[in-house]
Structure formats: structure tokens, C-alpha cells
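Ticket #385: bound-state structure for alpha-L-sorbopyranose.
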Amino acid sequence: MKEMNVAIIGYKFMGKAHSNAWKNVTNFFDVPFKPVLKVACGRNEEAVQEFADRWGWEEIETDWKKVIERDDIDIIDISTPPALHYPIALAAAKAGKHIFCEKPIALTAEEALKMYEAAEEAGVVHYLNHNYRRCPAVMLAKQMIDEGQLGKIYHWRGCYLQSWLMDPDFPLTWHLQKDIAGSGSSGGINSHSVDLARFLVGEIKTVSALTATFVKERPVPEGTGGGTFTAGETGAKKGKVTVEDAISMVVEFENGALGSFEATTFAIGRLNYNYFEIYGEKGAVIFNLERMNELQYYSAEDGEGEKGFRTILATDPSHPYMANWWPPAHNIGYEHEFHHAVFDFLKAIDSGETIAPNFNDGYLGMKILEAGIKSAETKKQVDID
Ligand code: SOE
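RESOLUTION: The complex was predicted; output attached.
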């Protein structure tokens, strides 16, 4: 089978989730190319070598520019914090590499647009890893909505609730620094909800929002500085948090539906509560990532006295991707969405077709996220041009 050499830049939480999918996708999916884990790149040589040894990356590099220059690399996997997405993607596009990029796409919509234009100009496949689109239960909701089973959509009610930053002694990691992260819960998690809303309901035309920063300064990290969900060492020095901890948005969709969004890392008891409800004229669906194999469904067409929300277990062979995994009710998990994304990405390279979400979706999503931050700053509704 033809091989595609992959280089990954970034080796923390997303580096791990992506490596797992690159390494194991061929065990479950008939991919058009076998991904080869060629180079893992990160600034800390000792740490990236340990990562490469564990996951089977053949070589390591500490300078991402050298990875881009290599003629033997076909795919660049961007798993760094957001500030590096733009420079790496631009260089990768110019070098003719296909790009598998983590969310949020970049620091700004302007950067996202330039990434999209560069990738299109280069004719490379560009994918933005909003992995939750590829939960089978979410794909089922998409199929039901597209088949008209909910009818006209009136409401999107979504939230992404976590609690990992509630401890004021959690260090000032990159997630809390605007120049590296771009924003806090807005880009970190509301970007997933906005992507799902665009995927399932449609484009958004106005945004009104409020933000809050509950803990305004934190201990400065020392040593490796910790990472997503994991506090690292800290000293006595404190630094200013420069992003929002929470955002609430209300929006109007172009198709007339109304939407509400809440994203926070201060919802005690919620760990990765990516949740939405969609209400239409003929029915409704409800998804909860913490019960990710299930889709709640209400149909106005059920018999009299028999109406009510039912739980569909989206694990039949007929449900998207599930025929490649296990028999019904032998559920799948968080890591399987990454396999689905890698499978679809490799198929897009082979077919020359566009994969979604891509850098244009990233640009459109960033415009909505930026409108939310602007609305909170100006205390005014913001129209999306
Ligand atoms: C932290 O909020 C985080 O790791 C996000 O960055 C991911 O995109 C999300 O899937 C899980 O939580």
C-alpha cells in the first residue's frame, strides 16, 4: 500500500490523541494510504524523544521549520498551541504539504483567512480538527436534520462546561495567555460548539455575548509548566490572566433560528460536558459528550400517548463509522473520533475532495468567536458580515 509520511508538531494532549489515530487507523479502516509516523517535533528534545519512542515516531526534530523543508514529508499535523498554527500552516502550504490542524484554527480570523487562501492556492488538503463532528451520534443528528426529521429548526441550545481551571493555584499555562491561546473558553471550547452549530443548524448572522474572568492572576509555571488539565510546577511569582474564563452568547442564525451558547472552565462537577439541544417544528435531538454513544430524540410523529424523548444508541453498523468498530452497544470513546478524522482526511487526499471542517470553516467560526468577544467588550450586538 502507498505510504504517506506524517510529521507532527506538538506532543502533548493533542499530540497523543493524534498519534494514536495515525498509528492505529489502518487496524480498523481501509485507508487509501498507510500513514507513516516519520517525525515528531517539539522544542524540548528529551521530552519529544520520549514521546517519539512511546508512540513509534521514527525521528525527532526540535525546529519545525526543518520539518517543513523535508521533501519526504507529505502531511503536517499541527498539534501546537494556537499561536503557532498560522506560521506553520502557511509554511506547510507553501511547501505543498497536506495539513491536519488542531482547533482553534489560529489567533484571529485574519490569520485563518490567510491559512485558507494559502492552502487553496497550494492545492493541499486542509482539515481543522473539530473532532466532535465525527462522533457517530452527532453524525446521526446531522443525517436526521438533513432528512427533514426535525423540520424547520427554531432553537440551538449548546454548552461546553468544564471545571479544570477553578483552582486559583492552577498555573498560568498557555491556555490563560492571550498571545499564545488567542482567547480562553471562547477559542478553547466554545469553538467546538460554534462548529457543531454551524454544522447542524447553519450560519450565524448576529452575536451578543458576555464574558467573565473569575481568577485574574495565577502562579507562573516553572519547569515544563504543566499542560491541558495538568498543573505543573510553580514558584511564588504570579502573572495576569489575559483571557476570559467564561463566555455566554445568544445568536441569530441566517435561517431564523435562535441560539444560546455557554462555555466555561468554572462549572464545578462538569468535566467535558459538550452538550447541545436542537428543537424543530417536528422533533428535537439532544447530545451529551459525557454519554457520547447516545442521541436523545423526540418525534412529533410518534403515536398519541406514546410521545417522549427516547435514547438512540448510535452503535449499530448502520450508524456512521460503527461498522468498522464493534458490535452494537460495545461503545466507542473519545479517541475513536480522531480515527474517523484521520480516515476521512486520507480519503480526501486520495479523492481530491474537500473535507469538512476545513480552514474556511475555521475562518467562518473565528468570525463568530471574535464577534462574541467584541460584543462582550462593547456591550453591543455584533453583526457578522
Ligand atoms: C481543553 O479545554 C480541551 O482539551 C480542549 O482544548 C479540547 O479541544 C477539548 O476537546 C477537550 O478540552
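RESOLUTION NOTES: The chain has two domains: 3-130, 133-354+365-378.
TICKET STATUS: resolved
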